Amino acid sequence: MNDSIEERPTPAPGNTRPGGRTARTRAAVRDAVLTGLSEHGYPALTVEYVAEHSGVHKTTLYRRWGSVEGLLADALDLASEDAWTPPDTGSLSGDLRALAHEVVGAFGDPAAGAAPTAFIGAAFQSPRAAEALHAFYTERFRRCEVVVTRAVARGEAPWGTDANAVVQGVSAPLFLRLFITREPIDGALADQAARAVLAGVEAGAYVPA
């Protein structure tokens, strides 16, 4: 096995500057976790698999991550550290539509959606993965709230509109079809979800009573 990434012990994930040895190790481990989830699913993912495909010795993986659950949680933590920002099209209608289409882009294609779908599946089997997934989407939705803040400032949404409820409302029907009814999603459904939420915003349905 190639141990070149782990020539010596390194600090806990996230404790060194970006681009350092720890960052490279976390990225390699994250990529191996994603590959394993995509190819085999959570039940078949093992520390040995991650070690073989990341080049990080399994004793290091056990020491730093503890278990497959720890590997999953850190992979999601690393994903949440990205620089992703929500779309800014200049209108609430355009922003909601763009957000909905991002969900379709991430999950609609079976190959592209295999890893994120497997992450969500793992959350039903692992309490720690469920906590990490909750934290990931809490942060994602928090970043999206600016879409509504801008809309209120432009006069497109009533003051007091619940920004978090709005951005969750856009993805909710898409996730329902993906993970509950197991139906395909596409651009037309994304547009429909965005229009429905926009109509609710304009009608004041997202302003708490």
What does this structure look like?
The protein is an all-alpha fold and 209 residues long. The protein has 2 domains: 59 residues, Homeodomain-like (Arc Repressor Mutant, subunit A), CATH 1.10.10.60; 111 residues, Tetracycline Repressor, domain 2. 67% of the residues lie in helices and 0% in strands. Helix 1 packs across helix 6 and helix 4 runs parallel beside helix 7.
* Multimeric organization: single chain
Please outline the major beta sheet: none
CATH architecture of the largest domain: Orthogonal Bundle
**By helix and strand content, what is the structural category?**
mainly alpha
| Intertermini distance | 61 Å
CATH class of the largest domain: Mainly Alpha
Instruction: Quote the average pLDDT.
Output: 86
Reported by name, the CATH topology of the largest domain is Tetracycline Repressor, domain 2
Proportion of residues in extended strands: under 5%
Outline: elongated
- What is the name of the CATH superfamily of the largest domain? Tetracycline Repressor, domain 2
- Enumerate the spans where pLDDT stays under 50 for 5 or more consecutive residues: 1-18
- Count every helix, treating DSSP H or I runs of 4 or more residues as helices: 9
Number of domains: 2
- Can you give the helix content as a percent range? 55-70%
